[in-house]
Structure formats: structure tokens, C-alpha cells
Write a structure and sequence with these properties.
alpha/beta, 5-stranded mixed beta sheet, binds 5'-O-[(R)-(carboxyoxy)(hydroxy)phosphoryl]adenosine, binds zinc ion
Length: 369
């Protein structure tokens, strides 16, 4: 079964074709990041206008590449092979979401193909389920991920701990009470003068310059000892700001040293709470998802801590940590199609009524759609 997915929740315009929820046939992504670097952040209006420009070329290129990958004769034949269209309906920026949702509705209507709405956060989780090829070896995580799985979603806008009992069966364990982990990375990177926009990866590269954390435990590890699965990162960001003002400006410590301590504070809290949840709920797997899942320190620490518990940790390939349409297709497949490729009834009803498929910027991870 082939699904064409569209993802426009933030500043990216992405489309992908995925087979049976696990095999990436092709993926195309256009970003307006350069523009946002200039303005120091996303201007939603600017992002949405660019997405209006990019959406048709991106979808068209995706179909062209799928045609080549599947060795088909024409664009038309590639379109005819697509079984369904999936689209991110939220959370995200309203203007950006509308561009993707309305384009998907139009294609679904014109091509007479079912339309599957996807929650972006659930989509992130499915970055873990795709086949990935390393040299000549194909890894099939879908065959190895056992339930219940504890899932840590860490993105620019969200930090949530979920217990996944199976496809479509999610139980909320906790989440951030204020800033998301990615947001804290971005704001601290900005305070350190490393990057005006989405500085998490840059801060992490800087942190890697220090072999030893000479500032160890200078910053707080918020809520680490609290007996719940919630997080709070805004106080940590404020403490980092004070540390920067106190020491960096007086040349007492370096940007790399502060970056390292900040990253360790975030990773300490995320890993401690995830491992605690895995123990409490007797998890058979741990899954990491979202943009911050690209963080090497977080990936390594989580694997290291889970090893002694004998719980396998799954992380998406780095390019499937940040926004992509590939895992939106995968989430759509596992949401509405059973393993034999049969459509479920609820889904057949849904495809008849486009008015129920709407962009929803404030969708939470537990909002069933
Ligand atoms: O999931 P995502 O692409 O967008 C949202 O859905 O929010 O996540 C973006 C977030 C940004 O905050 C970015 O700085 C952070 O992920 N990020 C990282 C790294 N790569 C991306 N944070 C820490 N270390 C990284 N290597
Ligand atoms: Zn995202």
C-alpha cells in the first residue's frame, strides 16, 4: 500500500511516498530556514506564504521521484498507484497547516483517494518504525519494537512522556508544564550568541568541544526528583541566563563549557524520568522522538541507562527526528490500515466527509483524530 503524505506544520514544506508504513520510496523537503535565520525566528505569515509557493512543486517532485523509484512509465501511472493521502492537521502554525491540509483535500477530491489526517506528534513517534538501510543491511525496527513502549517526544514545542500499548493506543504519563526541551535549547543558544533560530544542534556541537564538564551540576535539574512524569524547563533557561551573565561576560568560563552543562542538565532530567517510567510500567521498548531526539548526548545516555535494564532503545535516524512527511505516511498507515492492508470502517466513513478534516494548531498528543 502506497501513501503520499504532506507535512507543513512549521516552516517546512514536505511530501513523501511510503510503502506499507515502513519503506520510504521518496521524500522531498523545502525549507524557508534561511529566511528565518535572517529575522531571528519564524514569522508565521512569511512561512505560510513560502509554503503556498512550494507546495505544488514539492508534491510534483515527490511524484516524479516515486515514478523513477518504482520504475513506472509516467507521472499519471505513479499517481494511480497511490492508495491514500495523509496530511498533518496539527499541532503547528495555523497558516502553515492550512496550506498542507487544503492541498491534501484538493488532491484527495480530484484523484478520488482517501484522506487520512495525522497528529504531528504521533507522526514523530513513527520516525522509529521505518526501515533503515546501513551499508547493505536493512534494519526493520517494526519487527523489534515490543509493547508497551515508553515514548519520549522532545521537539521544539512539546515534551511528552507517553506509554504506547500498541498502534493507536496511547496513555499520557506527563509532559512539560512550561517550555519544551527544544525551546529551552533554542533560547539558551540565542543567549550564548550561537544561533538566532533553532540553535539546539549548534549548542550541542559546541558542548561536544568540552571533554570534561567543569561546571557539573551548576545548573538545576528541574523536577528530577519529583514522583511524576512532568517536566519544567523555563527555570533552567533562566538559571542559564544568570550563569551566562555572571561568568561568561567576565570571561570566567567559555561558551562551550556553559553549553555542555546546559545540555547535561536537560539530558539528566529527560533520561532519569524516561528510565523511571520504563521501570514503573515494565516497558519492553523505549522510543525517542522529535527534533531533540537528534541530540547525540541524549541518544547515547538513554541507551546506556536502559542497557542495564535490558530494555532496547529505538531512535529515528537523525534526518527523521526533525520535521518530515515520511513518518506522517507511516503514522497514517498504522492508524487506519491493518497489517493485511485492509481499510478500517471508521476510516471509510471519515474519507467521505472533508468538513471533519481541519487544521488544528493546538492539537495535543492525546487528541484522537
Ligand atoms: O520536531 P522539530 O523538528 O520541530 C517541532 O515539531 O517542534 O524540533 C525542532 C527542535 C528545535 O528546538 C531544535 O533546536 C531541536 O529540535 N534540535 C536539537 C538538535 N537538533 C534539533 N536540540 C538539541 N540537540 C540537537 N542535536
Ligand atoms: Zn515536529
Amino acid at each position: 500500500m502506497l501513501i503520499l503524505a504532506i507535512e507543513t506544520s512549521c516552516d517546512e514544506t514536505a511530501a513523501a511516498v511510503v510503502e506499507d508504513g515502513v519503506k520510504e520510496i521518496t521524500s522531498v523537503l523545502a525549507s524557508s530556514e534561511e529566511l528565518h535565520q535572517k529575522t531571528g525566528g519564524i514569522v508565521p505569515e512569511v512561512a505560510a506564504r513560502k509554503q503556498v509557493e512550494y507546495i505544488i512543486p514539492v508534491i510534483s517532485e515527490t511524484i516524479e521521484k516515486a515514478q523513477l523509484a518504482l520504475d513506472l512509465k509516467s507521472h499519471h501511472e505513479a499517481v494511480s498507484k497511490i492508495d491514500a493521502i495523509a496530511v498533518t492537521i496539527g499541532p503547528g502554525l495555523i497558516g502553515s497547516l492550512i496550506v498542507g491540509v487544503e492541498a491534501a483535500k484538493a488532491l484527495s477530491f480530484v484523484w478520488s483517494k482517501p484522506l487520512i489526517p495525522v497528529n504531528h506528534l504521533i507522526g514523530h513517534i513513527y520516525g522509529n518504525f521505518l526501515d533503515n538501510t546501513n551499508a547493505d543491511t536493512i534494519y526493520k525496527p517494526v519487527e523489534q519494537i515490543k509493547f508497551p513502549a515508553v515514548v519520549l517526544i522532545v521537539s521544539g514545542g512539546h515534551t511528552d512522556l507517553i506509554l504506547m500499548h500498541g498502534h493507536g493506543k496511547f496513555e499520557y504519563l506527563g509532559g512539560t508544564l512550561d517550555d519544551a526541551a527544544g525551546e529551552a535549547f533554542d533560547k539558551t543558544a540565542r543567549l550564548l550568541g550561537l544561533s538566532k533560530y533553532l540553535g539546539g544542534a549548534v549548542l550541542s556541537e559546541k558542548a561536544a568541544e568540552c571533554n570534561k564538564n567543569i561546571l557539573a551540576k551548576t545548573l538545576p535539574r528541574p523536577m528530577i526528583h519529583e514522583n511524576n512524569f512532568d517536566f519544567s524547563f523555563s527555570g533552567l533557561k533562566t538559571a542559564a541566563k544568570r550563569l551566562i551573565e555572571r561568568s561568561l561576560e567576565k570571561n570566567i568560563v567559555s561558551i562551550a563549557e556553559i553549553s555542555r552543562e546546559f545540555e547535561e542538565a536537560v539530558v539528566d532530567v529527560l533520561v532519569t524520568k524516561t528510565i523511571r517510567a520504563a521501570k514503573k510500567f515494565d516497558a519492553k521498548s523505549i522510543l525517542l522522538a522529535g527534533g531533540v531526539a537528534a541530540n547525540t548526548n541524549l541518544r547515547n545516555r538513554l541507551k546506556f541507562e536502559a542497557e542495564s535494564l535490558n530494555i532496547p532503545v529505538f531512535v529515528p535516524p537523525v534526518r527523521l527526528c526533525t520535521d518530515s512527511a515520511v513518518y506522517i505516511a507511516s503514522a497514517a498507515y498504522f492508524k487506519h490500515v491493518d497489517r493485511s492492508g485492509v481499510y478500517q470502517t471508521a476510516y471509510q466513513k471519515l474519507q467521505m466527509d472533508f468538513s471533519k478534516i481541519k487544521a488544528n494548531p493546538s492539537l495535543g498528543v492525546m487528541d484522537i483524530i
